[in-house]
Design brief:
alpha/beta, 11 helices, seven-stranded mixed sheet
């Protein structure tokens, strides 16, 4: 039992942090910037990269962002992504013609809303579901703007989560951005592998989340998946964030 003490202590600390988090409301009026952009423009990564700061970046990890992006942080959708990475990722999703979406760990909901809004400029999603273990008040307001969206407050390690996956399956795309811990990420991927066509992981190149990089290497080495990486960095920072996208090889043939 003594050998497990560090693990239990780390987990207990993480739960205390989670209980203390209070997501702040989003300024959902910013979605008009996506809805007002022509779809052909959104296919261009450079256009998306310019648009993302206008939608608003998160300010909770400001030291991870270059100084010239600080003025874009703290308002709007409060997206916790690097525009250099997120733009290329979204452009790839557009090419893949995503049909339904599930995101694990939405925090304030900004990345979820941005992803859904961009995808829906090309086709209405069958559904878009955000999941988090803490509440996300802005999702009530977003559902009024997009009735195909939903929020579920649930622990991804619970039996209720398995039941949720059974109800949603098949799912075209899942984005895992939850606890950033190796074993949990591995369990989430395993739970999703049978019911999702595409699975993305956040923080595959983040120096603070080495366990996610380990899981991503395992996925890349697994037969049946075609993998893409979006890990562009800003000078003199990080490495931070990074998105890995694993697509079932037979799904690649259906795009």
């Amino acid at each position: 039992m003594d050998s497990l003490a560090p693990t239990w202590n780390t987990q207990a600390g993480a739960w205390r942090l989670l209980k203390g988090l209070r997501p702040r409301p989003l300024d959902l009026s910013r979605i008009s910037l996506v809805r007002g952009t022509a779809p052909e423009e959104l296919r261009r990564p450079s256009r998306l990269e310019a648009l993302i700061p206008q939608l608003g970046l998160n300010d909770e990890g400001l030291a991870e962002f270059p100084a010239d992006l600080h003025s874009a942080a703290g308002g709007g959708l409060r997206i916790w992504q690097y525009p250099t990475q997120f733009s290329e990722y979204l452009a790839q999703l557009i090419r893949l013609d995503v049909r339904s979406y599930l995101e694990l760990g939405i925090r304030h909901g900004g990345s979820f809303v941005a992803t859904v809004e961009v995808l829906e400029r090309f086709r209405p999603l069958d559904f878009a579901v955000g999941v988090d273990i803490i509440d996300c008040p802005s999702m009530i307001d977003y559902k009024a703007l997009n009735p195909r969206s939903a929020f579920v407050r649930i622990n991804t390690q619970s039996e209720d989560f398995r039941k949720l996956l059974d109800r949603l399956a098949p799912i075209d795309l899942v984005f895992i951005d939850s606890h950033h811990e190796e074993q949990q990420c591995r369990r989430e991927f395993a739970a999703l592998a049978g019911c999702a066509n595409m699975i993305a992981l956040h923080d595959i190149s983040n120096k603070g989340c080495p366990g996610i990089a380990t899981v991503w290497r395992e996925i890349r080495a697994t037969a049946g998946w075609t993998c893409f990486e979006f890990t562009q960095q800003y000078a003199d920072l990080g490495p931070y964030m990074g998105i890995g996208l694993a697509v079932k090889t037979d799904r690649m043939g259906n795009t």
